Amino acid sequence: MSRACLRETMMQWLLQQLQGNQFLMAALVAVAGLALRNLPLRLARSLRNLGTTSLTLQNADQIYAQVDVVMARAAMGHRVQRLSMVEGYDQARDEWDWEFALGEGHHFLWIDGALVIVTRTTNEQGGEGGRSLRRPATLTITTLGRSRAVIAKIIDAARAINRDETHQRIFYWTKGCFVVADRKKRRSLDTVFVPQKIKQRLLTDMTDFLEGRAEYHRRGDPYRRTYAFEGPPGTGKTTLVQTLAAHFDRDVYVINLSGADSDETLQSALNQIDKSGVGLIEDIDASDVTHHRQPFSGELRPSDAYGMRDSSGLTLSGILNALDGAVAREGRIMFVTSNHIAHLDEALVRPGRIDVIEHIGLMQPSEALAMSRHYWPSDPSIDAWFSDRVLPMLPMAPSRLREMLLSRKATLESEHRTHSVPVGPNPTALATFLG
């Protein structure tokens, strides 16, 4: 029997069954009705997919805040009634300020001659398990047509918000993502008063790393670099990180171990550091799990455990893997600072995990004099003040000398108001220092 004859026979049989079975007929009518009822919805979805282009961002995405500001500024020319607030940076005034932003729901805007539909939704239940303090939010931007041109312009405008050759962005890890904590004027390394040989070593090493990707791959070495700065508080370790990053035109992504509630959170934070930035873990010795482990006594106790957790939920194993594990990203530059690097576990500071360790100590006379002259470049009495007031107190932290220099300014202003004459130079003491 041919296929055509077989189909005709089956149709005749089905019709006979339907004529004699009211229940089967009703079921087929119901199925057909459901299909027809859902047809407009499916057709609308198909038309939407064919006729629109959309971009969806989560508030954990780094560019989310900048896009939010762009949408806020575009929306203010429209009659928007559902509002929220967003913090944006005003380059013209060189300051942060609060601006109106789009609230929950759908908003129809007209941007560059195109209709843009913006949808904001927020999960009121918070993060996974309700543990996150930052409520997950979504921003969806939809344009008519299949061209990405309008969305690309929005992203370019978002990138330009914080792009400024004279400033450096400082990001801070909080509530599951990096946020812009501040924008700082780029500082030259000449304004950091640590021994010149240390600065030169670091500049050479970072340059070699950034230019040596092919050599790392040839050797089969992981292409990442970690630097540790250790020394007393106030010696400029964090400032040195910022100025080194600025020298290579990079932003700084700061991570505080107390802000990571698990090993997975720390790993996520390190992997979200942008390729154009450097990571910074400050005061890594402040976490108990980074200290020397107790010698194994034959009986495993919690204090001996390699996976012992501190109050934040971190383990030493998790920190080690985040810095140098299988999922640590290639090309990453990390800095860690410590006041007491001798307290850190050997596995943490071993070669290959911490590649370069530099001691940033208290200021010696040459750096202290350079800093004093930098603060008072036109003051002929600065050398005499330095020899009388600073030289006998060295070595000291740069933070302490800064206080003295700023106090001197207040003193001189007071003397100027009372027409006092500054004390003359003491050439003997300064000549002794300068040799």
Structure report:
- By secondary structure, this protein is an alpha/beta fold.
- It folds into three domains: 112 residues, no CATH class; 170 residues, P-loop containing nucleotide triphosphate hydrolases (Rossmann fold, 3-Layer(aba) Sandwich), CATH 3.40.50; 70 residues, no CATH class.
- The strands form three sheets. It has a seven-stranded mixed beta sheet with strand order 8-7-10-11-12-9-13, with helices on both faces. It has a four-stranded antiparallel beta sheet with strand order 1-6-5-4. Strands 2-3 form a two-stranded antiparallel sheet.
- β4 and β5 form a beta hairpin.
- α11 packs across α12 and α11 crosses α13.
- The radius of gyration is 32 Å and the shape is globular.
Q: Can you lay out the helices and strands and say which pair or pack?
A:
Blueprint: H1 3-20, H2 22-51, E1 52-58, H3 64-75, E2 83-90, E3 95-102, E4 105-111, E5 114-122, E6 137-144, H4 149-161, E7 167-174, E8 177-185, H5 196-211, H6 213-219, E9 225-230, H7 237-247, E10 251-255, H8 263-271, E11 277-281, H9 316-324, E12 333-338, H10 346-349, E13 356-359, H11 365-375, H12 382-390, H13 398-417, H14 427-434
Parallel strand pairs: 7-10, 9-12, 9-13, 10-11, 11-12
Antiparallel strand pairs: 1-6, 2-3, 4-5, 5-6, 7-8
Helix pairs in contact: 3-4, 8-9, 11-12, 11-13, 12-14
